[in-house]
Amino acid sequence: MNEKDAVTSRRKIILSGIQPTGTFTLGNYLGAVKNWRHLQEEYDCYYFVADLHALTVYHDPAARRKASRAAFALLLACGLDPEQSLVFIQSHVPAHAQMGWMLSCLSPFGDLSRMTQFKDKSAKHPEDINAGLFTYPALMAGDILLYQADYVPVGADQTQHLEFTRNVAARFNHVYGETFRLPEGYFPKAGARVMSLQEPTAKMSKSDENAKATIYILDDEKTILKKFKSAVTDSEAEIAFREGKDGINNLMTIYSAVTGKSLDEITAEFAGKGYGDFKTAVGTVVADELRPIRENYARLMEDKSYLDAEIAKGAERAAHIAERTLKKTMRKMGLC
Ligand code: AMP
Ligand code: TRP
Asked: Which residue ranges does the UniProt annotation give for the motif 'KMSKS' region (predicted)?
């Protein structure tokens, strides 16, 4: 194979990050991380714990340190293979902060002001509207562009940041010369949007105050079954996916995402059965799916030296790859 063929037939690059804020939910797993696992077969995958992004909201330092390690362990426990993919913690690779600064100098104030997440978060924490919260999209653009990612799997809430990234990349290429590949969003067919078990019109979220609304990925079997048992449904008695049946729709979505069965198959499977039976069935498949993750996680958290070694290895490999684009960017900007 000549060099040109090698370049054109290269595997495409997938990159995504997740903030280490709170334990992952079933929504994070079914909507994101489970798909990340499958993508490893087909793509070169880079996945990281976005701890620099989490700095924009105050956390106790000890809790933060623990949360980043735990998030890293959870990614491995969910099946991300550190031999096959690059899994790392963002702040351990200094190029992210360096790139973030350079790109913030090409980030228009007006564009940053229009970011929905900035408006939402600053409305939520009016006492702490810091500059990091404002320039967050420039940091995120750096994360993506450093690795010349082709595709970025993100939820709907991040598509605005991805568009911002493309704009910054295009502006940089225009001003300083061709440097960055413009990334595209990746929206998997199987990506489930999981809703709250108590208020099924709202997204299942890490920060829900009602503990019964959210399945955490480390919940034990008993807790999972109990939460599904008390899931809000409707007053009919038909397991079918249609408008107005938000609770049942959500349970069907979850059951489908875990088992791979279609909605029609599920309707047939539960024809004539009551909601109680259905809830138990959903709880059981979810508990079965999450059990090995919980066990892997416990094993990883006990093996401190293995985890430390994987964290260090991930950072070293990521730094090596990031360095290439960082140096190129610095050269183009006249910094070296
Ligand atoms: P977050 O927890 O908001 O930092 O999101 C991390 C990743 O999980 C993003 O790709 C989100 O789109 C995804 N995600 C978060 N909550 C859900 C949910 N309830 N359903 C599906 N995907 C979700
Ligand atoms: N901002 C993303 C979130 O809150 C996390 C993130 C940071 C990210 N950098 C990224 C996602 C780069 C994809 C690519 O969910």
From this structure: 203-207
Known catalytic residue at 313: no
- Indicate whether residue 206 lines ligand 1 (CB < 6 A): yes
C-beta atoms surrounding 58 within 10 Å: 11
CA-to-CA separations, 303 to 71, 79, 169, 240, in angstroms, rounded: 15, 17, 41, 45
Q: Are 205 and 199 in contact (CB under 8 A)?
A: no
- Kindly state the tokens that stand for 108: 């228009």
305-327, pLDDT tens digit by residue? 999 999 999 999 999 999 999 99
What is the maximal distance between C-alpha atoms in the chain? 71
Residue 216, classed as helix, strand or coil, is: strand
Q: Where are the domains of the chain?
A: 13-191+304-333, 221-298
pLDDT in tens, 66-118: 999 999 999 999 999 999 999 999 999 999 999 999 999 999 999 999 999 99
Per-residue pLDDT tens over the stretch 219-270: 999 999 999 999 999 999 999 999 999 999 999 999 999 999 999 999 999 9
Which residue of the set 12, 121, 212, 229 is catalytic? 121
> What is the third-level CATH fold of 221-298?
Tyrosyl-Transfer RNA Synthetase (1.10.240)
Q: What are the backbone angles phi and psi of residue 4, rounded to the nearest 5°?
A: -65, -45
13-191+304-333 and 221-298: same fold? no
pLDDT of residue 123: 93
Ligand nearest to the CA of residue 36, numbered in listed order: 1
Confirm whether 279 is a catalytic residue: no
Q: Name the CA radius of gyration of the chain, rounded.
A: 21
Residue 21 pLDDT: 85
Q: Does residue 80 have its Cβ closer than 6 Å to ligand 1?
A: no
Taking alpha carbons only, the member of 238, 241, 239, 216 closest to residue 227 is 216
Cα 115 from chain centre: 19
Q: What are phi and psi of 175, to 5 degrees?
A: -75, -45
For residue 3, pLDDT over 90 is answered with no
CATH code of the domain made up of 13-191+304-333? 3.40.50.620
